[in-house]
Amino acid sequence: MVVVGRDVVIPDVLWRPTATRTRSVGWVLATLLVLGACGSGDSEFEVVLDGLNEPRGLWVLADGTLCVAEAGRLAEGQEVREGPTANLADTGSVTCVDTEGVRERVIEQLPYVFYNVTGVTTGPADVVEMDGELYLLTGESEGDLARKLLRITDPTTAPEIMADLLAFAIETAQPDFFGEIDIFSNPYAMIPDPRNERVLVTDGATGHVLAVELDGDIQVFSDVTGHEVLTGIARGPDDLAYVTSFSELPHAAGDGAVLRLYPDGSSAVVAANLTTPIDLAFDTSGRLYVIEFLETSETGDPYGGTTGRLIRLEPEGDGWIVGQVLIQGLPFPTALLIDGDDRIYISVHGAFSSPSSGLVVRFDDLVQRKSNDPPIQFEENSP
Predict the structure, then answer these.
(1) CATH code for the domain in which residue 307 is found
(2) Among 189, 159, 206, 161, which Cα is nearest to 69's?
(3) CA 249, CA 246: separation in Å to the nearest integer?
(4) Which helix (H) or strand (E) holds 167?
(5) Is the distance from CB of 37 to CB of 374 less than 8 angstroms?
(6) Facing residues of 152 across strands?
(7) What is the pLDDT of residue 181?
(8) How far is CA 143 from the centre of its chain?
């Protein structure tokens, strides 16, 4: 048993090979939820996965299986502690669904934390496949498997710890003016870099993009000064890495950005005037798409909004400018993925949401929308 905190016990994490395998309601019943759209006709999306607990990062495996990291939820009947404190649970997980619609929560009992003052939650953050193996990134929490890069290889054993991002943060922390040392570490997203046998990881607490090698070595690949709250990361058509800067508190409208990272670790802002950008992706034509977590962010309450949007940016010079709003009204979107067929996947209800309300939805035709088409209004209404 792994003990975290004073009165929360988290059991060892095991892959669940005997978990009930069911077909996703959205996939099997082909439940198509119609989005209200004015002008050039309606667009439909398919619920690929439902019943999720704050879904975060997404990845499509080589065989077409879609996997999503679930941050987690408070345990059934768990009471929230009073005051500014962390509430811990062992409810983080990874859920996958194959091309036939068969779904399985393949790993569970991962560390999760709920901060009751802000409502912010962290847990399993992202998942990728590299060289045929599945890797999982865990975010800020407590316990042996928090803030780690994990490899999932054997369905009968616990995941293998490949790199300890918290230990790296402790080793490299610098004292402040008063000699105090604060530890900041909240891994959020990653992309594989198989040529260098590593993954690149954004740290949402430091403004660092970390090069995490599979032998456990960690280096700061890029120190993105002035953009400490890094979120999504994607590889662009130029083979360079791009990251989203969510913006610092109070997350004012227009303070977010997209940055390009160069091989020497330097960076440049290539898209500005974004509001809480949380993830990004490129289609097969090299066009840039960004998820904004909140459409508006009031300075009085940094999380005062309730819905985000998907936008497509247009190239201008050596960067991009905000072009077309494709979808409005996305409920707390946290991750974006575009596959090789230009199908767009989005995690929604990925934060500040009720247990089991999370969805992964797929749009098959959004990249074909014209620049003068009006935005689609996302609505969770059954036909």
Answers:
(1) 2.130.10.10
(2) 189
(3) 9
(4) helix 165-172
(5) yes
(6) 134
(7) 66
(8) 21
